[in-house]
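Postdoc handover notes: sequence design on the structure in folder B. Input tokens:
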């Protein structure tokens, strides 16, 4: 015996509710047969799927678990044995009557690298806003973490989108390799794929030659964004009259991937260019650290011992590890000026301190996560409308104590 859960979205009429109840009543009476042994093992992922996806894929769940069947104010749990072929036929009738899998519905499916983090929630808000404006329903899904171990779950999400007749385009950022079949299927089905955020893992290594479904990308231009940090931070240093030959600038680079390289490189190139125009030579030290606990703190310590007078932190992860260290050891780091990248509660609290308690965080660049989501769905909609499309690079927004609250209200700066 298993518990089958149905959550069918957007079915609210009394007629539809009646039909659903009758179908499940019939199922409970008829399907009293032994379950086949062939089951889907990925229970954790299945529990997050909608009934439309489960029915279409003919899912058989081995584990005995309970969720809820919810339509408007109706909530009930239905327990029965089922025969898969008959179950699929009966539910197909139900879904057709209810509009599920409606090929006339227009959907743009967004499959991100995550979903719960504040960054992805802001991306989701932008994506849904663009969908509403362009006349598309937007679905937004992502794995529980950005670990490569979640690739199977993310593949299932892409497969579900490909099997949904209403999906006209997919907006995608993958967390690892293994999507060759899905990308080939998208090409064969003429479903355009928009890369967003970091796009396809490893520079699109999963794309089969001659079967590339991607039509463009929307992401933070990390090199340009690093340059935005440098421009604004250099202006602050110049206004404080602290710049001299040999002024020591440290960089804590969050990894050796393209994102970290571009942000650190964009910052370094721009700040050296600006200093050279003022006949100043800077001394720059780049600490490249892996995303492991304690690594960024080691980078901070190394730069302190080197004598850094300013430090650029290339992402939120670096900030989140550096902030507790400088706040717990205020006197040690008090004379160093910092600038950062991304957003989050720690940067909000740090920048709001304005140097009163510990080292000053002069400012940071926030990825415009809302615009990333908005522009990605907009790009997909333009392609579907037959318009010419090009890649979209977003430089990010510099924020300080003066505009951080305004950016928070605009969903550009996020907490969390």
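Designed sequence:
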């Amino acid at each position: 015996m298993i518990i089958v859960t149905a959550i069918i979205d957007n079915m609210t009429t009394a007629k539809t509710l009646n039909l659903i109840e009758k179908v499940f009543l019939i199922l409970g009476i008829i399907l009293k047969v032994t379950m086949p042994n062939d089951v889907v093992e990925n229970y954790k992922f299945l529990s997050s799927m909608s009934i439309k996806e489960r029915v279409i894929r003919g899912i058989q769940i081995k584990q005995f678990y309970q969720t809820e069947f919810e339509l408007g104010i109706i909530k009930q749990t239905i327990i029965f044995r089922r025969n898969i072929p008959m179950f699929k036929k009966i539910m197909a009738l139900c879904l057709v009557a209810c509009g599920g899998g409606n090929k006339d519905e227009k959907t743009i499916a967004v499959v991100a690298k995550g979903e719960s983090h504040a960054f992805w929630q802001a991306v989701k808000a932008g994506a849904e806003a663009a969908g509403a404006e362009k006349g598309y329903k937007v679905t937004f899904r992502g794995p529980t973490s950005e670990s490569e171990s979640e690739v199977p779950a993310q593949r299932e999400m892409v497969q579900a989108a490909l099997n949904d007749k209403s999906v006209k385009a997919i907006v995608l950022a993958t967390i690892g390799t293994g999507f060759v079949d899905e990308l080939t299927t998208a090409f064969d089905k003429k479903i355009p794929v928009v890369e967003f955020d970091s796009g396809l893992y490893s520079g699109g290594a999963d794309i089969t030659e001659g079967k590339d479904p991607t039509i463009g990308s929307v992401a933070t231009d990390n090199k340009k964004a690093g340059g935005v940090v440098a421009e604004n931070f250099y202006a602050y240093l110049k206004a404080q009259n602290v710049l001299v030959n040999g002024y020591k600038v440290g960089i804590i680079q969050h990894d050796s991937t393209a994102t970290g390289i571009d942000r650190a490189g964009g910052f370094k190139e721009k700040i050296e260019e600006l200093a050279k125009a003022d006949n100043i030579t800077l001394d720059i030290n780049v600490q490249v650290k892996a995303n492991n606990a304690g690594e960024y703190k080691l980078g901070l310590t190394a730069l302190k011992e080197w004598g850094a007078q300013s430090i650029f932190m290339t992402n939120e992860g670096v900030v989140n590890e550096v902030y507790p260290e400088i706040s717990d050891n205020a006197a040690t780091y008090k004379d160093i000026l910092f600038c950062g990248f991304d957003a989050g509660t720690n940067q909000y609290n740090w920048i709001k301190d304005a140097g009163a308690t510990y080292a000053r965080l002069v400012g940071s660049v926030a990825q415009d996560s809302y615009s990333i989501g908005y522009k990605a769905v907009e790009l997909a909609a333009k392609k579907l409308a037959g318009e010419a499309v090009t890649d979209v690079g977003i430089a990010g927004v510099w924020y300080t104590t003066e505009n951080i609250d305004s950016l928070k209200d605009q969903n550009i700066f996020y907490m969390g």
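Context for whoever picks this up: The radius of gyration is 25 Å. Don't rerun without checking with the PI first.
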